[in-house]
Write a structure and sequence with these properties.
The chain has 196 residues and is mostly helical. The protein has helices at 23-26, 31-45, 60-64, 88-102, 116-132, 145-195, and strands spanning 6-9, 111-114. Keywords: ATP-binding, Coiled coil, Motor protein, Nucleotide-binding.
Length: 196
């Protein structure tokens, strides 16, 4: 395996998510009721439909499945629905969950680690490039085109936010300066009135 240029690795997660049955139908109580509440919260935390961000901290389940929910993975979701009208609300809830989960975008890449010989072969040109001082030839992380576009878009958003915050800060500093001047003026007027 070390003779090859790289070592590929991967993981397989098989997860059975419990159903989101109504508590009234199941008759759950005590610890079972608390577990059902946590399961339903975890299932609803996946994607609230308001944003593309997945709130991983909202539940243990989303934290455990972080790589599968928008990370570096390929994810297959199978949902089971009941044809019975008795379970129509649960079926509708399950279908809504499936639609929200389908909207999550993953960016799967091959997990490859270079072996020692390959790294040693790449290290020498990197050193010579860095010694030349040419910034354009500095080794960097290779990004896919869509990743690079997303990175640049996000960088522009952050730069716009910084510029907006700097403008707000400047306005706030000016308002503070004016308020301090007005306060000083009022203090001086009050001191003059008391002196008279």
């Amino acid at each position: 395996m070390l003779r090859q240029a790289q070592l590929k690795s991967g993981q397989l997660f098989l997860v059975d998510l419990a159903g989101s049955e109504k508590v009234g139908k199941t008759g759950a109580s005590g610890q079972t009721l608390e577990e059902a509440k946590k399961i339903n919260k975890s299932l609803s935390a996946g994607n609230d439909g308001k944003s593309t961000h997945i709130p991983y901290r909202d539940s243990k389940l989303t934290r455990i499945l972080q790589e599968s929910l928008g990370g570096n993975s390929r994810t297959t979701l199978i949902i089971n629905c009941s044809p019975s009208s008795y379970n129509d609300q649960e079926t509708l809830s399950t279908l809504r969950f499936g639609v929200r989960a389908k909207a999550i975008k993953n960016k799967a890449k091959i997990n490859a680690e270079l072996n020692c010989k390959k790294l040693a072969g790449q290290e020498t040109p990197s050193r010579s490039e860095s010694r030349t001082g040419d910034r354009a030839s500095t080794p960097s992380i290779v990004l896919e085109k869509d990743e690079r576009e997303e990175f640049l878009r996000r960088e522009n958003e952050l730069q716009d936010q910084v510029a907006e915050k700097e403008s707000q800060l400047s306005t706030a500093e000016q308002a503070l300066k004016e308020a301090k001047g007005e306060l000083q003026f009022l203090k001086e007027n009050k001191a003059l009135e008391q002196a008279e």
